[in-house]
């Protein structure tokens, strides 16, 4: 298990369906869920997953099962292609929300802290990030209908990136809360 390489990041952000498949795989979606929820035919979804397998991001197993090859706590390359893409495209979309739903939260705090206090807060936030990953892994066994895509940036809300939403099948009904977050 490892983190994505820069060339993989460039390939992912240059192809929306491939990025969607990678985000779904990272969020523990099953093959059938991807095909049911998005306008991806079975052969197209298999082609995307084969590309992800060749890139070393997943291992495509028999019966289209997916095993993630990324480290559970991988971080995007600082200022790398994926971080730049999400910073430019996804973060503004995320922040446009009013964060007023019952299961949403946005905190923006202003104050003065010592170096020691800032270091302490960074350690705690990293612990929250690890907890996020652990909870996501635990929930991977639940059916897709019981999981909600979320973004976490000291704010929490349901999130579906607009280009992914454009690929969603409309007959599945309200998509709110089922989008992959990352």
Sheet/helix structural class: mainly alpha
Strand order of the largest sheet: 3-5-4
Unreliable segments of 5+ consecutive residues: 173-179
Residue share in helix: 40-55%
Tell me, what's the shape? globular
Major sheet attributes: 3 strands, antiparallel
**Total of helices:** 7
The SSE string, one letter per element, is HHHHEEHEHEEH
Task: Tell me what you see in this structure.
The strands form two sheets. A three-stranded antiparallel beta sheet has the order 3-5-4, with no helix packed on it. The chain has a two-stranded antiparallel sheet with strand order 1-2. Mean pLDDT is about 85; it is low at about 175-180. It is mainly alpha-helical. It is about 45% helix and about 10% strand. About 25% of the residues are buried. α2 (about 15-25) packs across α4. The protein is globular, with a radius of gyration of 17 Å. The longest helix is centred in the C-terminal third of the chain and has 25 residues, at about 115-140. β4 and β5 (about 155-160) form a beta hairpin. It starts with 5 loop residues before the first helix and ends in a 17-residue tail after the last helix. It is built from seven helices and five strands, in the order ααααββαβαββα.
């Amino acid at each position: 298990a490892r983190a994505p390489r820069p060339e993989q990041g460039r390939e992912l952000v240059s192809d929306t369906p491939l990025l969607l498949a990678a985000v779904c795989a990272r969020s523990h979606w099953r093959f059938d869920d991807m095909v049911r929820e998005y306008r991806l035919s079975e052969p197209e979804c298999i082609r995307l997953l084969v590309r992800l397998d060749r890139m070393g991001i997943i291992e495509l197993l028999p019966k289209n099962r997916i095993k993630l090859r990324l480290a559970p706590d991988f971080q995007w390359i600082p200022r790398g292609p994926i971080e730049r893409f999400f910073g430019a495209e996804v973060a503004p979309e995320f922040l446009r929300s009013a964060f007023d739903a019952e299961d949403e939260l946005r905190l923006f705090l202003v104050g003065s802290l010592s170096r020691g206090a800032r270091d302490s807060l960074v350690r705690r936030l990293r612990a929250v990030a690890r907890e996020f990953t652990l909870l996501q892994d635990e929930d991977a066994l639940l059916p897709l209908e019981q999981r909600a895509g979320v973004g976490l940036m000291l704010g929490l809300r349901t999130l579906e990136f607009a280009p992914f939403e454009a690929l969603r099948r409309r007959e599945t009904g309200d998509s709110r809360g089922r989008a992959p977050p990352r």
